[in-house]
Amino acid sequence: MSTTVKATTSEEVSGNKFMALIRREIGQVFAIAGLVIIFAFFSFMKPVFYSWANVSNGILMSTTVTGLLAVGITFVIITGGIDLSIGTGTTLCAILVAHYVVGWHLPLWSGFVIGMSFGALIGALNGAMIAFLKLPPFIATLATMKAAQGLALIISHLTPIRFDTVKGWESIAQGNLIGSIPNGVLILFGAAIVAWFILNRTVIGRYTFAIGSNGEATKLSGVKVERWLILIYALCGLFVGLAAVVLTARLGAAEPDLGLGYELEAIAAVIIGGTSLLGGKGTISGTIIGALIMAVLTNGLRILQVQQEWQYVVVGIVIVIAVFGDNVRRRRAGEIS
Q1: How far, in Å, are 82, 101, 242, 326 from residue 87 at the CA level?
Q2: Is the pTM for the entire model greater than 0.85?
């Protein structure tokens, strides 16, 4: 009899832990459910939607750039900040990569080094303005956004720079190292795994959550918050530079306005994935799910031949629902009043 009681108690404890996990990750659970429902709906409406050709080249490939930017800005949003410069930062990095790789006839691998280095520099500049000049993240990154846009136009002379002379450049995104999976998709998921490890298994990840949960308390505990903010924004910039390389490989060229609007799509993906705009909460896996939802939604509406202006309306509604849901969860948890 006593054995039965112990077994029941153990089951209850396990059940309580499971329910606690569900409550903690409820945003991600809803995101996964939403992805499945949306995918099933479009598959029912247009069977061609779930064909591998559309999934690989239409959905997954379109997720690569938004996904990389979203993974990077997840770190920033968890700190309670924002980075509006990732879109035009992608443009500037792409132009700089093309300028040096094409103009100087550099090897293919150097494009990754150049893109990620300039991306990290842009991110570090944002972090420095926020940490030391005490500018609000919105204002600091808005200024960088416009400056990057202008520099991209100046350096490119308003002309796209093609990678025709760089052998194998397009294979960075469009090639297939593993089966029929595009290389760009492999880069995205590889980067997501690295980001997950950084966020969950390193000091920078712990401080990212700490700053977002309570920045003042973190500072009082002796942590150099300013230095870590610069590092976090620089880390975001690394993913921006990587996204620039993948984007130019997809298009075969660096265009002076190719990154415009990506910042909004990336931020939307992060929010839909369950990361809170108030900071202190977020996951890389949720961000990838959010990016996939954005890609599935856009691709499905396009296949149904919905006009582009209505596509924007639908995406806007989804973002409102995601933010409202996050506010409801936080109110129930007593995190906001």
Answers
A1: 13, 21, 12, 25
A2: yes
In a domain, 9, yes or no: no
CA atoms within 13 A on the CB side of 207: 17
Does some domain include residue 30?
A: no
Residue 160 to residue 164: CA distance in whole angstroms: 12
The answer to whether 329 and 27 have CB atoms below 8 angstroms apart is yes
Strand partners, 178: 181
* Residues in Cβ contact with 285 at an 8 Å cutoff, skipping those fewer than 6 apart: 28, 192, 196, 273
Task: Tell me which residue range forms the domain holding 116.
Answer: 35-331
pLDDT value for 1: 46
Nearest Cα neighbor of 294 from 324, 263, 325 is 263
Q: Is 68 contained in some domain?
A: yes
Q: Measured between alpha carbons, how far is 18 from 12 in angstroms, rounded to an integer? A: 10
CA-based nearest residue to 290, from 127, 140, 96, 67: 67
Q: Within a domain: residue 11?
A: no
Q: Which of 160-164, 219-223, 267-271, 325-329 has the lowest mean pLDDT?
A: 325-329
Q: Is 179 helix (H, G, I), strand (E, B) or coil?
A: coil
pLDDT tens, position by position, 140-171: 999 999 999 999 999 999 999 999 999 999 99
Q: What is the dihedral of CA 327, 331, 336, 337, to 10 degrees?
A: 120
Number of domains in the chain: 1
Least confident of 79-93, 170-184, 306-320: 306-320
Q: Work out the average pLDDT over 168-186.
A: 94
| Helix or strand holding residue 254 (H, E) | strand 253-254
Burial (Cβ within 10 Å: 0-12, 13-18, ≥19) of residue 15? exposed
